[in-house]
Amino acid sequence: SAAALRKLDVFEPRELSNMAWALATVGLRNRPLMSALGGVAMRQMFVFKPQDLGNTAWAFATLEFKDEPLLDAIASGAIALIRSDPTLTPQNLTNIAWSFATLMVRNDPLFEVIAEKAIATLGQFNMQNLSNTAWAFAKVGVRNEPLFAALAEEALRRMPEWSTQDCANIAWSYAKVGWRDEQLLEAIAGRALRTIALFSAQSLANLAWAFAMFGVCNGPLMQAIAEGA
């Protein structure tokens, strides 16, 4: 890390984001290196591409490294890129939303433009993008009604693609923001019953919590959750 610290000032944005991504991927939380990475990234933020921005945000969130000045810079850069850069992908968008939510940073202007872009491009999202976006907005308490309505409609259309984590995340997210959609709840219950053996303990707990929050007593589902726990 000492060698990397000496060279950071000559790193390009892609090299900076790749370094941060690599550290997060192997779980190496080196505070001096992360702080230095954040400082250099802030100075270069105006030339970051969407992937650089998304990977940097993801890395800092994965390592639970909450650098407020860097997050402010990422938010400003992301707002500009989301509005203007056609190369931004659903994965970039989701990474940014997930990162801010994981670090529990609510930035309303950022989440507003993320919602607008997500609604306009939901057809390009995979199911993990959809469920992670719902989770991120719910986690920071942003109840964007047009977004949650669009996410529910798209999720229902693509129910066969749901993983168990998608199913649990969607249930938890809608319960967290208090958005009750009967058709979505029925789909979640049906999908969960067919795949209950594959649910992790955390996903089972999230599913049970969501239905309890809605006051929905689905006997077969609750029995399956109890047996699977």
Outline of the structure:
With 229 residues, the chain is mostly helical.
3D architecture notes:
The chain is mostly helical. 73% of the residues lie in helices and 0% in strands. It contains 13 helices and no strands. Helix 6 packs antiparallel against helix 7 (108-121). The chain is elongated and about 60 Å long.
List the helices and strands and how they pair.
Blueprint (H helix, E strand, L loop, with lengths): L1 H6 L5 H14 L4 H14 L5 H13 L5 H17 L5 H13 L5 H14 L5 H13 L5 H13 L6 H13 L5 H14 L5 H14 L4 H10 L1
Helix pairs in contact: 2-3, 2-4, 3-5, 4-5, 4-6, 5-7, 6-7, 6-8, 7-9, 8-9, 8-10, 10-11, 10-12
Poorly predicted spans: none
Mean pLDDT: 93
Structure annotation, total helices:
13
User: What portion of residues belong to β-strands?
Assistant: under 5%
- Structural class computed from helices and strand pairing: mainly alpha
Terminus-to-terminus distance: 43 Å
Into which percent range does the helicity of residues fall?
over 70%
Would you list the SSEs in sequence order as H and E?
Answer: HHHHHHHHHHHHH
How would you sum up the major sheet? none
Give short descriptive properties of this protein.
229 residues; mainly alpha
